[in-house]
């Protein structure tokens, strides 16, 4: 857990008011998980350690990605009463990053109000320039496009990130970990342990925990060479290695490498590598406006026709159609 949380100085008996800005199509579970931690902190302590309010940009109701609405306390201008403001994002977040929204968030930052992003709420803060110079994270599906669009961000694949007065998490149940670490920084680990027990959490995860389950959890810890090989592939998307190079780096023969992939991942290493690159390409196509040829090059394809053929073989449509249908 980070030692430099901006609200460390808040007295334990002072109620901390947390504001949640709900974006259209926000992820309901991520929001409710965060509120649930605050509610349980109050219940177990017997005091109102936290209170929370919900806002939309204009005060009008917004529908979550689950099709449900939460009662709001007003428009974003009323969030000035909050001591920390968390932007709750979800699907199609780019469509809702209006100039009015970004300007409003910049004003909150000028007024020294700590800001955070849950799920794709991080994208909103990045668009406003409010994550420059901060460690931050976002859902793994958006990591590649975020790195392309905001190359100067200190972006990580961790579950959550707390850096001074910025709080970001990757979505899903990671908001639980973010809020528990926040609560621990103010009210101590004993309260957090009690909250964890109430929610049957076996442990409170830290910023060092990655979002996606490491491959060794899926295939067991007995195949470190296979894990190393996949890690190499994931780290070399733009300039793919040859299978001989991968095998040499992990200290086995190419034939041994092929046997490991066929036995544990049920495909040839060349096929696995190709699908890794195409999966990255698909995320870039859906989440950015980068030209198709640039997407191809960034994912290790030297020509557009070769990229288009491989993409069509896997996804049933050429890259240009993928983007057009999505829009």
Overview of the molecule:
This protein has helices at 28-45, 99-110, 121-127, 140-149, 174-187, 189-198, 215-219, 224-235, 243-250, 254-265, 269-287, 292-298, 304-315, 319-326; strands at 16-22, 50-56, 74-75, 84-88, 115-118, 135-137, 154-156, 160-163, 166-169. It is an alpha/beta fold and 327 residues long. It has 2 domains: 16-198, Rossmann fold; 215-326, Homeodomain-like (Arc Repressor Mutant, subunit A, Orthogonal Bundle). Helix 1 packs parallel to helix 5 and helix 8 (224-235) crosses helix 9 (243-250). The chain starts with 15 loop residues before the first strand and ends with a helix. Mean pLDDT is 91; it is low at 1-12.
Count of helical regions: 14
Overall shape: it is globular
N- and C-termini, Cα separation: 39 Å
Q: What does the largest sheet look like?
A: 7 strands, mixed
CATH topology of the largest domain: Rossmann fold
Number of strands: 9
What string gives the helices and strands in order? Answer: EHEEEHEHEHEEEHHHHHHHHHH
CATH superfamily of the largest domain: Class I glutamine amidotransferase (GATase) domain
Helix content: 40-55%
Do you know the CATH architecture of the largest domain? 3-Layer(aba) Sandwich
Q: Roughly what fraction of the amino acids lie in strands? A: 5-15%
Q: Rg to the nearest angstrom?
A: 22 Å
Mean pLDDT, rounded to whole units?
91
Strand order of the largest sheet: 3-2-1-4-5-9-8
Under CATH at level 1, the class of the largest domain stands as: Alpha Beta
């Amino acid at each position: 857990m980070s030692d430099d949380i901006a609200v460390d100085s808040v007295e334990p008996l002072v109620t901390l008011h947390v504001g949640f800005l709900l974006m259209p199509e926000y992820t309901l579970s991520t929001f409710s998980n965060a509120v649930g931690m605050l509610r349980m902190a109050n219940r177990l302590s017997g005091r109102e350690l936290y209170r929370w309010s919900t806002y939309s940009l204009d005060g009008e109701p917004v529908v979550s990605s689950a099709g449900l609405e939460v009662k709001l306390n007003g428009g974003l201008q009323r969030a000035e009463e909050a001591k920390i403001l968390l932007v709750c994002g979800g699907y199609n977040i780019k469509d809702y990053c209006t100039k009015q929204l970004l300007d409003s968030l910049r004003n909150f930052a000028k007024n020294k109000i700590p800001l955070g992003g849950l799920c794709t709420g991080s994208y909103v803060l990045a668009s406003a320039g409010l994550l420059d110079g901060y460690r931050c994270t976002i859902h793994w599906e958006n990591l590649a496009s975020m790195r392309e669009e905001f190359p100067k961000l200190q972006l990580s694949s961790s579950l959550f990130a707390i850096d001074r007065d910025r709080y970001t998490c990757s979505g899903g149940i990671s908001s639980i970990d973010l809020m528990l670490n926040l609560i621990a920084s103010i009210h101590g680990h004993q309260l957090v342990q009690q909250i964890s027990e109430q929610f049957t959490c076996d442990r409170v995860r830290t910023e060092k925990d990655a979002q996606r389950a490491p491959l060794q959890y899926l295939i067991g810890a007995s195949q470190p060479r296979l894990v190393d090989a996949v890690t190499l592939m994931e780290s070399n998307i733009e300039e793919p290695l040859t299978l001989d190079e991968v095998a040499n780096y992990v200290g086995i023969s190419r034939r041994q490498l092929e046997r490991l992939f066929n036995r544990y991942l049920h495909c040839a290493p060349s096929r696995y590598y190709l699908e890794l690159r195409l999966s990255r390409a698909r995320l870039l196509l859906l989440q950015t406006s980068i030209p198709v040829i640039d997407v191809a090059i960034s994912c290790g394809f030297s020509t557009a026709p070769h990229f288009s053929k491989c993409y069509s073989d896997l996804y049933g449509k050429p890259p240009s159609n993928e983007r057009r249908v999505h829009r």
